[in-house]
Amino acid sequence: MTPQQEAAAVVDAVLADLPRHRGVVVDSPPGAGKSTLVVKAAGHIAETGEPLMIVAQTNEQVDDLVERLAAEHPDLGVGRLSASGYITPGRILALPNVSVAGKLPDLGDPAVVIATADKWAWIGDRTWPWAIVDEAYQMRSDKLLRIASLFERSLFVGDPGQLDPFSIVDGDRWAGLSWDPVQSAVSVLLRHNPDLPVHRLPVSWRLPASAAPVVSEAFYPFTGFRAGTGPADRSLEFTVNGMRTPFDLALEEAAGSGWALYELPSRHTVRTDAEAVLATASLATRLLQRSPVAHSERGSHPVTADRIAIGAAHRDQVAAIRAAGVPPEITVDTANRLQGREYDVTIVLHPLSGRRDATAFHLESGRLCVLASRHRHACVVVARAGIPELLDAHPSAEPVQLGVPVKFPDGWEANQAVLAHLSKHRVTPDD
Amino acid sequence: MNSLRERAFLNRLDELRGTMPARPHDARAIAALAANPGCARRAVMDAAGVDKDRAARHVGFPAPFGQSQFAITRGNVFESLVKENGCAELLRLLRELLGLSVAQVGYRDVESVGSHLRHSHTRALIDRAAREDDGTAVFYDHPLFSLEIAGHTSYLEPDVVAFQIGGRFHIVEIKSFGMIDGQAEPDKVAAAARQAAVYVLALRTLMADLGHDPERVSHDVVLVCPENFANRPTAALVDVRKQLSVLGRQLTRMTRVEYLLEGLPDDLTFDLAPGEDGVPTRSADELTQALLQVPARYAPDCLSTCDMCMFCRHEARACGSTDLLGRQIRDQLGGVSGMHEALGLAEGTREAVEGQEEIARLLRLADRLREESLR
Amino acid sequence: MSALTALARLRAVRDGVAQRITTVRHCHISDQPLVLIPLKLAGEAAAPLAAMVGTDPGHPRLLVVPQPRNRDLRFAFAAGLAEVLLPYIEGFEKSTETVERRGGEPYERCLDAPQILVPNRSAASFTGLLGRSTRFRRAEGPYPVHPSVPLLGRWLTYFADRSQQPGSSVLLAATEALSLHWATGQSGLEDANLAALLGWIDPPPGMSGHRAAEEAEDPLLWPPAGPTTDPGFDNEVLAPAIRAYEEAPTDRAVDRVSQALRTQLDPTWRLMWRAVDLLRSLPEGSRVKDRWEIDRGSFTRFVERIAEGSPPQARRDGAVGAAARLAGLERARASYDVQRAHDDPLLMAEYRLTGEAFAGTVIAADPEHSEGEGRSRKLRPLITVRTGDPVRLTPGTVVGSPDRRGHAAEIVEAVDGEITLKITKGMGRGRTPAPGSVPEPGERVSYTSLIDDFQSSAALPGPEQTPWTHGGPPEEYEPGDDDAQEEWL
Description:
The complex is a heterotrimer of chains A (431), B (375) and C (489). Chain B is an alpha/beta fold.
């Protein structure tokens, strides 16, 4: 089977399961066509003439979906519910069949109503026959509890490998409970309804052939997925020659192989390690100077600043990278906020760079997974040497709670796997 | 490692230990290897099988680990309750937990043979069980397993029971801490899981050795604890896959201790050979000097895991190491390891050397803000 | 640990004494707290061994269980504890105030609430376990207990649960309350030892904190503050005393156990009151009263709950209960963090260090600056502040000021240590700002993006409407004989 056929078969199976079960879960690795599935399923349900509610987690995600729905199904009426502080962006205002309002009656009666989970929680007094919950693995189960009575049956779509939902308070009190409110919506749903079908999208259309196997083995060790494109389908070309500086070498390595590790000398540093921050910002600036062009199955286009992202673990690092001087159109953000986004090239400040002791935060596999799986062409990782030694010295004594399923992959192993791969694409400032 | 190098390495470990027999690694000690793997002192002493407790006592820094006889009694009483009448209570629990329909279970106490035979007896019994795939269920009490650790065979005498049904095995760990409303203290469960993983690994190694599929030993161990506030046992399955992979890493690491030995003086030894009075004949001073040759990586968590903790804490204090204040503090101080150095940078009495400019700026700012706020 | 706290710890090491990490006290300390020091039998989950309890430093009450494995003696202990605790709690139930509320019926709130102080977090957890093991008991039916026992259990559970609420002071662990205000020259882990912690904060004359803490680690000089006892004491003193009681359960034998346990509890009792004095000596932060008011409200509701005859707290939270509790905890956490920083320049300094706050001097002001035209014209005074702080706030960020409640502003520009702000709230409704509401040139001000803007979540369904995704409606709890018969061995 071609990747296209394989993916289409899964989508067909999902759609066929919808009327047969109260809930259907679809696991989607990075770039496996999650939004495409949501849009397709929305059209499929709309054809039946029954109303549909769609739940996403952030306003940005809602707007992205609204845009895609409007593009794919121009005849479909879409209502966008919003909270009071929301300012409708121009891209949504421009859409003909989309209405935006703070209250349900003000929307008219569109076939599809879409809002964030937080907004849905304020809507009562109506039941929808159908719902689609997007980014369901990033949704905390207490949010699902607030909205689950709004729908009769639902499709839950999300990426199990990304960051788990979190709380600013300690959730130990609920450990082991099947309805633990700090667990993800999907884990709680499946613990109470173990017979619901779980499908898995098998092909990543985003990640290139150079990245899909690495990400799949490190972060999806038991399920796995493959790239939808072959090594020859994608390439990144610089139209301006380099000067064989280490930055150029790193960018060329990334363009050629899909990955580069820009490795600074080993040193323990403060979190906003000036040298690493500067290297990260400089790589981005240099990348733009080289006027890259991306060639892919979708054709060729220049890689402009809006197609480049810089990712880091902490907000102060993000601020420091910004302050170091990055063209404003380049996205600079934390892993949390890069979830679900896609770029041509990403530059990542490794969460463990310059650390002496790793914490659970730094080792969380989802964080690295997000950072290493946003790109269509290439990913450059900036890190100080010494991370393998740090991992080696990391004490493994996490507390164990009864009745809590063990989560895979282990952050330690995932970090090792990614590093092992990156070490083959190392460039140092002395090169 | 080739065999010649390996022999040299093992000889070197023997020299480090001196004339005393290697301290056997029990499951607890093996499980503790993962507690602070970055510590060279501990790694070398463990690999050489040095009795750390004795060493710490001799240099005047005994570890503050005592056990109350109430806790010991409680543990023994509970264990015998679970094992009474050929593990009758245990069978009840396993029926519920694993959904078994067996009415009868065999019981073999490996301890019934002499201690020198227990290991081979365990081997024979496990081999037979793995061959006879006839669906019978058997408890093996007091099995004696072995594991190869840094070239030495360590015998493990589990307080566990191995349960076998239809050729598949589960390790059963009996602990006397309470499981209250389905939960137990996470640190205690973690410790039990780490220990149980050692037994799973040992049993898997034995299975492989006998030519059977090691995966027939389940990674789900059965943890048996008193329920709520009573003596009545209850059980839970604990998935130890993560502990198994950590253990695997640490055991591989033990052989890599070789590179830690490079650069140590050739005549270095931690010999604790006793005189007639049972006290080590070497002076405490000499031993102290020997210990200081191998760098430690002290962290406050050592206070609950390592016999050498008081010694290393004293050392960290004497040299003003920031490690004394907690594992994360050095990261907070941008890698500065000395307390005086960090304070000097903060108060401006010390010039930042290359690479310290940023942390110096941060500390100076912190110092200014602190002074300003306290005014 | 922040760089500021790290610095304070380094100073503590050098100066040999703990350093203040706050300028004010952030927890409520009652005029009449009840100190409770529980001890448990080693190796058991919740077998009480002894407790020293009371409100008068000079007259503690010592309760002991001469044979901790004896069920009847345990319940006698629980009844004894109830005899001290329940009257103390009831003493706060009678005096109430009437609270008016917008759009609702006025309600009653107790003028003050009880406050229990225990030595450390383990003691707080053990308090919860004691509550768990006693609240389901019954005065009638099989294994009857004194009616005060289940009531005690419900109160202990209440206090232990409430102590997890950020900012609550109804049950405080002394080590946590002290560590909130002082940094020692040892690790946080070692700070859990009350004697060592106090050794650093308040060392005896002529002794360094380091030396005092070292002495405090010797269980012969300073018995552990519990709930676990020193193994050496267990083996050498307690075990023979208990054995003697078993052989002949006479008053003398009880006395021997009591005396033994008193030696373990007396030193901690004195430490607890020293901790109270030390905490009292700190000036109270301005929002501590507000949080205590919330505690008083919570206490009042629980008093009413008991008066209404509702059942004991469930063993574990149901789906809806768990989500509701989580929402409450998150709300409390967010406002606790904000309130403390706004109350305390030293805590605000943490945010200045990370660029989320700044302090400086106003160098320019345009108090009558406005935006929009005609009817939509809005007063938006502008000020520019010069600061030496490393500000990391981007234009558009909403900020508040600890100096002015109800004041809100927005960052317009931040370049080279000069921050321009647009004031959006707190300057009155007139065409010109209310006097004093806009900072004037030369004035020292501080601003932070740390503001209490926590969005409360929508209502939860009733437990009987728990959806299918969360297991459906739970069975209703019916107290039964099974609970009362639960073994406590």
